[in-house]
Amino acid sequence: MGDDSEWKKLPTDQKCEHKVWKARLSGYTEALQQFQRITDEKSPEWGKYQGLIKKFVTDSNAVAQLKGLEAALAYIENAHLASRTAGEVVSGVVCKVFNQPKARAKELGSDICLMYIEIEKAEAVQEELLKGLDNKNPKIALACVEVLRRAISEFGSKVVTLKPVVKVLPKLFESREKAVRDEAKLLAVEVYRWIRDALRPPLQNINSVLLKELEEEWAKLPTSAPRQSRFLRSQQDLRAKFEQQQQNAGDGGDEGDGEESEEAAPAVDAYELLEAVEILSKLPKDFHEKIEAKKWQERKEALEALETLTKNPKLESGEYGDVVKALNKVIGKDSNVMLVTIAAKCVAGLAAGLRKKFSTYAGHLVPTILEKFKEKKAQVVQALQEAIDAVFLSTTLQNVSEDTLAVMDNKNPSVRQQASLFLARSFRHCTPTTLPKSLLKPFCVALLKQVNDSAPEVRDAAFEALGTAMKVVGERAVNPFLADVDKLKIDKIKECSEKVELAGGKKPAGPAKEKAPPKAEPPAEAPAKPSGPPKKAPAAKPSALGKKGKPAAPKGAAPAKAKKTENKDVAEAELSPEVCEERAGAVLPASCMQTLDSANWKERLAAMEEFHKAAEQMDSKEMPCQALVRMLAKKPGWKETNFQVMQLKMQVIATVAQRGTFSRTSALAVLEPVVEKVGDVKCGVKAKEALTGVAEACGLPWTAEQVVSLAFGQKNPKNQAEALNWLCNAIKEFGFAGVNVKAFINNVKTALAATNPAVRTSAISLLSVMFLYVGAPLRMFFEGEKAALLSQIDAEFEKVKCQTPPAPIRGGSKASGGEEADEQEEEAEAGDDVVDLLPRTDISDKITSEMLSKIGDKNWKIRKEGLDEVTAVLSEAKFIKPGVGELPTALKARLTDSNKILVQQTLSILQQMATAMGPAIKQYIKSLGFPIFTVLTDSKNTVRAAGLTTLNGWVEQTGMKLWLEGEELAEEMKKENPFLRQELLGWLVVKLPALRSVPSDLLLCLPHLYSCLEDRNADVRKKAQEALPVFMMHLGYDKMNKAAAKLKPTSKDQVVGLLEKARASVPAKPSAPAKEAPSAAASSTKPASAPPAPVKTAPVSEQVPAETKKSKPASAPKAKAPAKKPSAKAEDDRTGPIFTLLPNGKEQRIKEEKSLKVLKWNFITPREEYVEQLKAQMTLCVAKWLMEDLFHTDFQKHIKAIGSMMEHLDAEVEATVGCLDLILKWFTLRFFDTNTSVLMKALEYLKLLFIALSNQDYHLTEHEASSFIPYLILKVGEPKDVVRKDVRSIISLLRRVYPASRVFPFLMDGTKSKNSKQRAECLEELGCLVGLCGMSVFQQTATKALREIAVHIGDRDTAVRNAALNAVVMAYNVCGEQVYKLIGQLSEKDMSMLEERIKRSAKKPSTAAASKPPEEKVAGSANASMLRKPSSNEAPLKLSEIRSQKAAEQQPPQPSSTVPREFQLDPNFIVDLPETIMPDLLVVESVETAEATPLDVPEFKFRLPSISSSCSAREDSSSINLVISQVASSDAKISVQGLAKIGKVLQEESKWSLFLGHVDEFIVAALMQLRLLASKRLADERTERQQQVDKLYSLVINTLNSLVMVGKLAQEASPGVLKDLVYALLSLILDPQHQDSSKESPLIRSINVVLLALCKNADPTNTLSALLMLLQEACTSTACSSEFSEMVMKCHWRMIRLLPEKIEALYLDKILLDIHNFMKLIPKEILKQKSNAMAQRTVKTLLHTLYRLVGPKIMDHLSLIENRSESEVEAHLRRAMNSASSQTSKDSENISKSKIQPPAVADPVRISSKPASSSSSSESLNPAHYEERLRALRQLYGLGNNSQSVSVEKSSVPAVSSKPAVSTMDMLQSQLAQLRESREQQGSQNTRPRSPARAAGPPPDLNEFKARLEMIKANLR
Predict the structure, then answer these.
(1) What's the pTM?
(2) Which residue, 300, 395, 1582, 1706, has fewest beta-carbon neighbours within 10 Å?
């Protein structure tokens, strides 16, 4: 009892696992009750039992097992997780339940198995049951057979796969147990019930007695098709349908049963149930020797042995090439007809046993068998018929069409007869899809010739073939080819058609289509039948129907169209003159008939007027058309001399043709005279109208052919030219459907050779119209023309290249629905038809055995000679016929050649062969196409690339579907070669998305695709994952998941997971072109009613380049699209905004892409899913009409869309920014287009877009940049210079809206391209970036990037080498000798090239500095701007670069002039000014005049913009930008004006806010001006010029001083800018030109003031970072002097002194990172050198000071340092901590105080370039002055050390002027006073709690102050 109470407390799931059977029984009972209570199939409770269900069914206790089975059944029926347990549970049922003696257990086990089938796990159940059949326990085998029978009976053959069941039946029949044999019989009967006779072949070898018993049982089965009685969960709708049918009674129900029975009983092919037999190994070893033996008996033995093997109904695939070759030889050449018969039977057996796998050999056998039909013995003919029929079933009609057509003209009537009979039999296996018009046309033409053959058996065979074709495709498709066939023959063809029975009970195309209209519209169809003669009635029906049998038009439209179609085919007998006169007299007035032949022209005119009036009023049904038009020939007839009478005759012809039933007989009576008058000046217009009327009645194809032949049969060139002109217009009006292109081409060639220029011009015009419909293939026919004529033709083609054919407005093309669709299809096929018409050369005689032996020679040189000969033959022939003899076999062997050069040459030949042969190359796909895949196994990229190129060339000619048929593709994927797999999968990923459907054989590739997912090679796995969505697009998720279920459990889970992932990214299938055609036609009918509005003029600062203006008219041709006027509604739809601004739309898209909810915009070539995704995203925010243009298939729509976006750019800037990411993505798709017009238009828009974004101060996000810039950089490698130029312009504009340092990585990636142009351009851009932005553009990767750039110095391409050298030289100009360390090791050759280039690029100060524009010189130091947040105020500087580039490209070179620089206009200054206010420059007569007479500088006629707080922020920003741009002007006066204006702003505190955000720009502009001044000083040494330069120096420095004195503004300066500023100021102090006197110049004193104020007021973090960068450069660069290093360290010491008050504002993490980088980049060996020892001590002092001020908490600020434990910074700080802990607090204070003093420096108070030098002065100073100085010094350098101080130490650098310094003491007093006031204000505003207390230190030492005062006194003397 204790035990019971113990397990009873356990939860149910634990009871089920208990070792006590009672506990388990209780658990199973509770679980069963629980399972029955749970209503939610996805309840979490089900998960608890997922792993226990197998234990339920395999319980060792029989009682517990019974309850467990019940519980398991309930679980499987209700739980959603049950399907996961199928395999293990069914295995347990088979092994542990079916052997139980209890019937209830077996019944429950069977129910469990069937329930698993119901929940879609039939395969797993069937697999386990089939395994159970092999169990030694007969009970288990018996139960498994019984369950299989029940499953088939209840679920049917659709759910349970019968092939493995049929396979095991013979084995079950041989079982020892009678019960198993009996159950197997029942199983066989059940299987027979579902598949009927398909079961007989697999069981043909069983015991005859048993087979007889089965036959008896099968005979007892009902003939009705079986029905599924139990349904899967996914078939519940079908279940409901069946239940509804059972409830219905009556006839309707019976019909439904019949339909569903067909659906419920799918046809099963017995072939699929058979096991394949391998026969190649069973062939006699001497088979090939015997088959070649001279004795016919030996040959017979070999053939009989083979015949025995081929009787196996299913053969295993293998290499049958040699066998087929031997059989082909016997059939074709053996004289013994008995052997021919046996060989034919062997061929039939092989073809039947291999089926589709035999298609490879079909092309070799078909022509041989057809030729052999010349044998007259019935036995041989029958065997050959069976053989060729079996061969046909293994291939397609397309593949055998060439060979069959070739023998249709054979001299032997037996061959012609059998060829027609073969076609008739073949047609029976075709459908309208597999017998398209392109195939039907040549067959019908050939068969119609045989209809008139002299041999009756040939005629009968032709009738049978034509009748079969009519039965398959319908009368409507065949009727156009029977236009000239008489009625008796047409009736015979129809009679044969009615007798034909199609293979497999297929329904013919014609009758099915004719049944639909009566159901839909009986009233409309009724009148159609009696509308014409009885013989044409059947043809009248289809003419009114749509393509799919639907009514073409409502109500009474059908009869009219039926009549019209009928008229075109009317064959009317020619009437005698008497009959014509009689019939005409019955309908014409008597007076008219009497005066028609009058000698008086006026009477004839009156008669013709009556004639015309009567024809217009006559009833069209009663109009005798032939009689009327023949009456016009009544004397004087067509020799009428009066033009008015002749014009009326032409009008009568047009009226009769348009209104009556006008036959071709009638047309022939008048066409010749009408054509003669086409060229007449007076009657020509009416003659053309008459021709148009005839064409509308009889069809343009026939009429045009007659007109052209008649015109060129005359000698009048005027008639010829006008006939061609009429034809041009007629084609546009009627369309091109059905036109005989070949006849036209011949006539056009005749016209082109005419001597009359008008005829040639008309012929070229006709060609241009034909080009609209035919396309590029048309030009192939005229390549032999003269170069001048060919250039004219090309020019005409180029004009219409971008146009679409106009919509037909006359003839049958006006009809809507099916007729229009058919004609559009015919027009679409026109290009293909033209290719078929190309004259092809038969090269089979040139493929000699000698050539083939060369190709197979052992010597590679001889093999190459053979391949060269083949290339020459193909090149000479240009277009070839399919017959190439044994060449494919020879070329196939060369694909595996050990010499890779020969492999590539072979691939080139194969590609050339595909182009030359055209679509007929498809017959060689199996034998020569698939061997190309073997090339993809090569490890060399070039060989594989050549193989892919050849493959793509073949696919262009053959289409993709043929490559997917059969097992060949699967066999290639099966090969475990990583190169083959990744290339093949990548190829499929590109090709499959373009297909709308694929053959079912693609399923065979799935197992190998799944194995690729687990391949060792990562690239293979990646490609396989990319292929999953593409395969799923065609096969569907269910089929792929079903295939994955067959994998091993370990593989299955992984593959299923990948399938689920791929399911979300399945691309959409491309829409059918038949659906697109109407929309395209409709869109082409909409003309641009008005040309698009011109793009608004860009501001003067950014004019659109000239190319963009020229390219605008390129879109003009689209306005020529003829059409109806668009409705007002359509026009209104295009007037609204094109972009809609969605709130947070862009942010949401970025968020979705980051979370992988959508595809990331990253691809090599855009796949369809990317386009669909973009289309879906743009639908929400882009106008509907624009979306249609953006995603249209016509590139002209793209050009139109871009034009619309240009027009709306200015008006919708904000909305454009909101959709910018989508716009840029759309343009990346255009980068992959091949149309240059679209690309140029896109680049034009992008330039305008980035200018607009820059003007809006917009900056690209990372999302936008990463989805656009990589694809833009791809286009920089375009071969066309125009494209590269525009791309370069866009990249330069990019720097305005995206930091150059971010563009840099994209350009670095571009240098890795295989395209040499792209590499060169990217390296050029990198060099420009380094020159413009300095080394900061590298960010933290300078060494890596420069090394990658330096690698290209050794490139093969000259442009790449030069670009790489230039880039490294630019880096050298920035960082000096350090560049050699950064680029690493180079080869001697590369290093010598680099050194030579650096040597040549060295600049001469006297010339280069003066000649180089200041913008370029100063830009090198503008690296700071890239380290901060990008700002729109960079625009002026960047703009000057663009302007200078354009000026250099567009302006002609100007002669050098010595006119002073004052007269040069600064582009920076005029960049934002209107064009009209530019001043007129003074004219200088000559150089002498300019030097003799000083000229006044012309005044600009405008005022500098005022900057006031009253104007808007936008205006203020633009005004500040303009004024800052003037600071860097090369015109001194303009620069002074700009500096003065900025000085005013800085003096008024209220205007300081206007300067926020512009600090960096002003400092950069000031630095540019300082460098410009330096160049001026070097270029002109005149004293007055030097004085002007010095004044401007002072003004720039004073303005900088005013800026840094404003603390709020100084805080904005970024580290990079500060670094450049300090560098420039220290360089000025050290400049020798400022040190040529004994006195310190005011300029240097002012610079000292700026430096010290900068240390005080600028952001301390940025300042320290800048100083550390400078110190690093000073230590590592050999170009830096020791004086410069000392000056930098003094700046450091000044900052160290100011640290106590700035410590709270310091970003310690950044400073410590900078110190770490300093110590890391500069090795200890360099720091320990004597010259760098002070720098090391300085940095250590900085570290110790920081530690003293922060304490141990400083260790928490090392977060930015990677591997901090290895950093020297942490080591120094720890030493400081240890030192501080070992001393007393008093000592630590003293030490900390002493550490603040710079080490080993005697007088650190001053920042000076030299030691102070004494000088005498007569000026006397009283003690009051000294006391004042002393107080100032105490205040400046007291204990606090926090004053805003300037240097009072006298510099040794004298002033430039020779005059003594004026009032030096006064200047010093004023500076000290200003600083003292600033110090007091600063002290009153800021109190630092962390600053050290003033009373903490010892009292000041007065002796020290006395000493300093004495030194000051000495200096001031």
Answers:
(1) 0.41
(2) 1582
Q: What is the length of the chain? A: 1917
**Rounded CA gap, 1600 and 1626, in Å?**
14
- Chain segment 402-442, per-residue pLDDT in tens: 888 888 888 899 999 999 999 999 998 888 888 888 888 88
DSSP-derived secondary structure letter, 929: I
Helix/strand/coil for 277: strand
Which range in 562-571, 1409-1418, 1727-1736 is most confidently predicted, on average pLDDT? 1727-1736
CA distances from 45 to 29, 71, 72, 85, 1814 (A): 16, 14, 14, 16, 99
pLDDT digits over 1139-1169, tens only? 888 778 888 888 888 887 788 888 888 888 8
Query: Could you identify the residue written with the tokens 């004529």?
Result: 789
pLDDT the model gives residue 1518: 60
pLDDT bin (cut points 50, 70, 90) of residue 1912 is: low
DSSP code string of 590-633 = HHHHHHTT-SSHHHHHHHHHHHHHHHHHS-GGG--HHHHHHHTT
- Among the listed residues 1140, 1137, 1135, 1130, the one whose alpha carbon sits nearest the alpha carbon of residue 1092: 1135
Give the separation between CA 1018 and CA 1012, rounded to whole angstroms.
Answer: 10
pLDDT interval class at 112 (50, 70, 90): very high
| SS3 at position 545 | strand
Q: Kindly report the average pLDDT of the chain as a whole number.
A: 75
Tokens 């700071």 locate to: 1424
- Report which DSSP code applies to 307: H
Which residues, 6+ apart, have CB-to-CB distance to 1630 below 8 Å? 1681, 1683, 1684, 1687, 1809
CA 491 – CA 219 distance, rounded (Å): 44
Contact present, 1660 and 1710 (Cβ < 8 Å) = no
Report the DSSP beta bridge partners of residue 1139: 1182
Instruction: Give the separation between CA 246 and CA 256, rounded to whole angstroms.
Output: 10
pLDDT in tens, 1325-1360: 888 888 887 777 776 577 888 888 888 888 888 889
* Coil, helix or strand at residue 1580: coil
- 280: tokens are 């190649």
Could you give phi then psi for residue 841, rounded to 5 degrees? -100, 140
Question: Are 615 and 655 spatial neighbours (Cβ–Cβ below 8 Å)?
Answer: yes
- Using a 10 angstrom Cβ sphere, with 0-12 exposed, 13-18 middle and 19 or more buried, the burial of residue 1162 is exposed
Closest CA to 373 of 362, 388, 384, 365: 384
The stretch 53-63 carries a mean pLDDT of 88
Q: What pLDDT does 236 receive?
A: 74
SS3 849: helix
pLDDT at 1100: 34
Give per-residue burial for 693-726: e unless 16+ CB within 10 Å, then b. bbbbbbbbbbbbbbbbebbbebebbbbbbbbbbb
Residue pair 108/70 in contact (Cβ under 8 Å)? The answer is yes
**Residue of 1490 and 667 predicted with greater confidence:** 667
Helices (H), 848-899: 849-855, 860-877, 887-894
1688, 1640 Cβ separation under 8 angstroms: no
Q: Distance between CA atoms of 990 and 984, rounded to whole angstroms?
A: 10
Q: Residue 212: is its pLDDT beyond 80?
A: yes
Name the strand (E) or helix (H) holding 347.
Answer: helix 337-354
Q: How far apart are CA 631 and CA 1234, in angstroms?
A: 59
> What are the residues whose beta carbons fall under 8 Å from the beta carbon of 347, sequence distance 6 or more?
324, 327, 331, 365, 369, 387, 390, 391
Residue pair 447/466 in contact by the 8 Å Cβ criterion? yes
pLDDT grade for 1815, boundaries at 50, 70 and 90: very low
